[in-house]
Amino acid sequence: RKEVEQDPGPFNVPEGATVAFNCTYSNSASQSFFWYRQDCRKEPKLLMSVYSSGNEDGRFTAQLNRASQYISLLIRDSKLSDSATYLCVVNMGGYIPTFGRGTSLIVHP
Amino acid sequence: NAGVTQTPKFQVLKTGQSMTLQCAQDMNHNSMYWYRQDPGMGLRLIYYSASEGTTDKGEVPNGYNVSRLNKREFSLRLESAAPSQTSVYFCASNPGQGNGEKLFFGSGTQLSVL
């Protein structure tokens, strides 16, 4: 079982829709959590960190559920430019960030 | 501020050839990483260096070697390339305080082994 799991999608949504992704992790001792965005095999770029109390950045909301060992990303009012792959990253202690396989989002007109 | 610089951007090798991927960062980061990305597989860690002078295996180290030349540079070597090593390779770094800081990535190397 992979340590960090994501639904690969694709999630195909119209502009303006709200879409949510989940990511589950296996190590209950995991310490830090991130969402990265990746466009067309370019380098991943940090979208947002995920804090225990949940956090919001504009149209994006991230939440952490330690009891159920998952993090989520909610995107409101989807834009065409949100089309990308969203990577969940979990740091399970120390120096090793572990990536999920990514969730593909396609926003169509 | 260049951040993380990877070279080359593209490379085609024949089976059995060797090559070294170069990575340098100018952010005074302690930790550096090499990942490979294959379709549908996400990023998988090949090797990492928590600090200058140390290197450790990641999830998929077979067929690779690394050198942490100094604090700035972390190279990845393929001694005898195989078609299974066709992939996109990313170098990354972070401050390396051991508590999960965000990663800074290079722009990637597209490697094809024929």
> How many helical stretches of chain A?
0
What share of the residues of chain B does DSSP label as strand, in percent?
A: over 45%
Mean pLDDT of chain B: 92
How much of the residues of chain A is beta strand, in percent?
Answer: over 45%
Task: Briefly characterize the structure.
Chain A is mainly β and 109 residues long.
Q: What does this protein look like?
A:
The complex is a heterodimer of chains A (109) and B (114). In chain A, strands 2, 4, 5, 9, 10 and 11 form a six-stranded mixed sheet that branches. In chain A, strands 1-3-8-7-6 form a five-stranded antiparallel sheet, with no helix packed on it. The N and C termini of chain A lie far apart (37 Å). The radius of gyration of chain A is 13 Å and the shape is globular. Chain A contains no helices and eleven strands. In chain A, 0% of the residues lie in helices and 54% in strands. Chain A has 109 residues and is an all-beta fold. Chain B has 114 residues and is mostly beta strands. Helices cover 0% and strands 51% of the residues of chain B. Chain B is built from no helices and eleven strands. Chain B has strands at residues 4-7, 10-13, 19-25, 31-38, 42-49, 56-57, 64-68, 74-78, 87-94, 104-105, 109-113. In chain B, the strands form two sheets. In chain B, strands 2, 4, 5, 6, 9, 10 and 11 form a seven-stranded mixed sheet that branches. Chain B has a four-stranded antiparallel sheet with strand order 1-3-8-7, with no helix packed on it. The chains are: A mainly beta (109), B mainly beta (114). At the A-B interface, strand 4, strand 5, strand 9 and strand 10 of A face strand 4, strand 5 and strand 9 of B.
What is the secondary structure topology, with strand pairs?
The complex is a heterodimer of chains A (109) and B (114).
Chain A: E1 4-6, E2 11-14, E3 19-25, E4 32-38, E5 45-50, E6 55-57, E7 60-65, E8 70-75, E9 84-91, E10 97-99, E11 103-108
Parallel strand pairs in A: 2-11
Antiparallel strand pairs in A: 1-3, 3-8, 4-5, 4-9, 6-7, 7-8, 9-10, 9-11
Chain B: E1 4-7, E2 10-13, E3 19-25, E4 31-38, E5 42-49, E6 56-57, E7 64-68, E8 74-78, E9 87-94, E10 104-105, E11 109-113
Parallel strand pairs in B: 2-11
Antiparallel strand pairs in B: 1-3, 3-8, 4-5, 4-9, 5-6, 7-8, 9-10, 9-11
